[in-house]
Design goal:
Jelly Rolls, 2 helices, five-stranded antiparallel sheet, mainly beta, single chain
């Protein structure tokens, strides 16, 4: 597995090795011992999968408060997504900054997003399937969000604002300036 720390060093892009021939390929996409040693000594407790059928679907930016704060290991198994993490840790030198990568089945890349970051993605192809491991279960009482197109954050989404397909919840999330402190650095 290849590891790349992004502009926010806690966010890690992981590219599993692939071994292929005329039939296709084989890849070990997750190894607990390797992940604990090289990325984060954490335990994943659940695997989630979502389908977004329409190009331009934006899900996020989401996070959960302690004690249900989630770390996520995200990959795309069909279609393509632009996956984003925003640092919302008060006092962090990268507070309010974002990183984003394209995840596809072809590149096999995965993105590790630890607790303390808001996470979201936009679909680049129809019928995009996102598979992600999480470190805590979902808790509606601890579920929070951040406005996906907050100009203060300035995410360079690969779509026009009018193209975004959003849930009613994601349309009304707070801007970073209005977000109560959620995590400390």
């Amino acid at each position: 597995m290849k590891l790349e720390r992004l502009a926010i060093p806690e966010i890690v892009k992981i590219t599993p090795a692939r071994f292929g021939d005329a039939r296709g390929y084989f890849s070990e996409v997750f190894k607990d011992e390797w992940f604990r040693k090289n990325v984060s000594d954490t335990t994943f407790i659940q695997d989630n999968q979502s389908l977004s059928s329409t190009v331009g679907t934006v899900r996020g930016l989401h996070f959960q408060l302690d004690p249900f704060a989630q770390g996520k290991l995200v990959r795309c198994t069909a279609g393509a997504i632009f996956d984003v993490a925003v640092d919302i840790r008060v006092g962090s030198p990268t507070f309010g900054r974002w990183v984003g990568v394209e995840l596809t089945p072809e590149n096999g890349d995965q993105l590790w997003i630890p607790p303390g970051f808001a996470h979201g993605f936009a679909t680049l192809l129809p019928d995009s399937v996102i598979f992600y491991k999480v470190t805590a279960p979902y808790s509606a009482a601890h579920d929070r969000g951040l406005l996906w197109n907050d100009s203060e954050i300035g995410i360079d989404w690969p779509l026009e604002t009018g193209q975004a397909v959003l849930s009613e919840k994601d349309k009304v999330q707070p801007r970073l300036a209005d977000l109560p402190p959620s995590f400390a650095y």
